[in-house]
Specification:
CATH topology of the largest domain: FAD/NAD(P)-binding domain
CATH superfamily of the largest domain: FAD/NAD(P)-binding domain
Oligomer: single chain
Helix content: 25-40%
Shape: globular
Low-confidence stretches: none
Radius of gyration: 25 Å
Structural class: alpha/beta
CATH architecture of the largest domain: 3-Layer(bba) Sandwich
């Protein structure tokens, strides 16, 4: 063995870079190894390029409300799709450049190559054996494409290839309606692509509450063809690709596979760690410490499949980086659960769902945005929010929403959960008029009336005014 490091980090994505920021505070004798393109998944092919596409799509879609505002001439607007994608890639490349600079500045402490574990303290990179006191696995994930679909070649798109296209469609099938599939299906439909979307389940973007799901489903059905609740089979067709779902057969030019991601563990050598692996070939690890068993091996980010979100990957990377060279491995309390899908209306899940609360004593409060004043003013009055609170002490337990500007409501609720606030605590918050947060207040007031020990007054229990914009 020629070289020995205090820490070797495998993967230079979000989790790997977060780990690096902690490791380099503790030692200069480290190595970060990366296979494939540099730049985080988020910056290259994930959250940033998708949001650039969504922003363009929503800007164009707003033209449909112009007549209601008294603005004429929207029928003259059109989409220059290659220009949309050119702007997307230009900004995307700028985001990527910022993350690449971090590793470029490391010189010999950054190495391009495929790393393979030879044991819990040994790594082989480009044919060279390297030793380490601690190893951090942050190899990320990749889009899953069913093997049979690969026969269709470049007609099958994933997030790895979608953003490189100059043109899409004109007929596009989107298979998979989790957060990513729902976001991209709607964005492309709003940019003029004829989208047909398919999902094996009956849910969309992770929503579980049936009334909240109905809000999103109604919106998407007005913009594309939806086919839910059936297995999906792709067949060759002289005119493209046929997607068979239940009794429907839809012919499209391309298919966007949005059926999930898989950890990048092929050839990583996890079997050499000497710990049990599950049916997917993954070792058990502690989510509070990122540690694999009792080894000086830590696993962080999308590769562990636990919480595949950027902010969670960053947290896991920091935890792994702090623990890698610590005298004693520590467990850290994780943040409140928060997930957002940037559809319109936006979808968010905060804390526990009703399914996760099954068997517990809790109350439910909800509100619709159909008649909410600020939402109506902006022609965005489609949405619903549902809250769950502990029946005994009124503490907020979770929320699910599909609402305009839902990302901001979700962060407010996430802070409330992390601070252990109750429904009554939240009702003491000043809420300006007119704002979308008034919809949240309506749901809080409904659930407050069901809870014991409610205060005599924080204005939460006043009789309705009869003015919808003020309720």
């Amino acid at each position: 063995m020629h070289k020995h490091y205090d820490a070797i980090i495998i993967g230079a994505g979000t989790a790997g870079l977060a780990a690096l920021s902690e490791v380099r505070k503790r030692t200069d004798h480290f190595l970060i190894v990366n296979a494939g393109p540099y730049g985080t998944t988020c910056a290259r092919v994930g959250c940033m390029p998708s949001k650039l596409l969504i922003e363009a799509a929503n800007a164009y879609h707003r033209r449909l409300t112009f007549d209601a505002f008294g603005i004429r001439g929207s029928e003259a607007l059109s989409v220059d799709f290659p220009a949309v994608m050119e702007r997307l890639r230009a900004l995307r490349d700028d985001f990527v450049a910022g993350t690449v600079k971090v590793t470029e500045a490391l010189g010999e402490r950054s190495l391009a190559g495929h790393a393979r574990l030879l044991g819990p303290d040994t790594v082989e990179v480009n044919g060279e054996r390297l030793g380490a006191r601690a190893i951090i696995l942050a190899t990320g994930s990749h889009p899953f494409v069913p093997p049979a679909w690969k026969a269709f070649g470049e007609r099958i798109l994933t997030t790895d290839t979608l953003f490189e296209q100059r043109q899409i469609g004109p007929r596009l099938g989107v298979v998979g309606l989790g957060p990513v599939g729902a976001e991209l299906a709607q964005a492309l439909a709003r940019l003029g692509v004829r989208v047909s979307a398919f999902a094996k389940s009956n849910t969309i973007a992770g929503l579980a509450d049936p009334d909240t799901l109905a809000v999103l489903r109604d919106t998407l059905e007005s913009e594309m063809q939806l086919h839910l609740g059936h297995d999906v089979v792709l067949e060759a067709d002289p005119d493209g690709i046929a997607i068979v779902s239940g009794t429907t057969r839809t012919v499209v030019d391309q298919v966007l596979a949005a059926v999930g991601r898989r950890p990048n563990v092929a050839g990583l050598g996890l079997e050499t760690l000497g710990v049990p692996l599950d049916k997917h070939g993954m070792p058990a690890f502690h989510p509070g410490s990122s540690q694999v068993g009792h080894l000086r091996v830590f696993i962080a980010g999308d590769v562990n499949g636990d919480r595949p979100l950027l902010h969670e990957a960053a947290d896991e990377g920091h935890i792994a980086g702090m623990n890698a060279l610590a005298d004693e491995v520590r467990c850290f309390e994780r943040r409140s659960s928060l997930a957002i899908a940037f559809t319109e209306p936006q979808v968010a899940m905060v804390g526990a769902s009703a399914e996760e609360l099954a068997g517990k004593e809790f109350e439910v409060g909800s509100a619709s945005f159909a008649n909410q004043g600020r939402a109506r003013a902006g022609q965005r009055n489609a949405g619903r929010i549902v809250l769950y609170a502990d029946r005994a002490d009124g503490k907020l337990l979770g929320a699910e929403l599909c609402a305009p500007a839902g990302e901001h409501l979700a962060h407010l609720l996430g802070l409330a959960l992390s601070r252990g606030l109750s429904v009554h605590d939240l009702l003491t918050m000043p809420i300006y008029h007119p704002v979308l947060e008034e919809g949240l207040r309506t749901a809080l007031r409904e659930i407050s009336r069901k809870l014991p020990g409610r205060p005599a007054s924080d204005l939460a229990h006043c009789a309705p005014l009869g003015a919808p914009a003020l309720e």
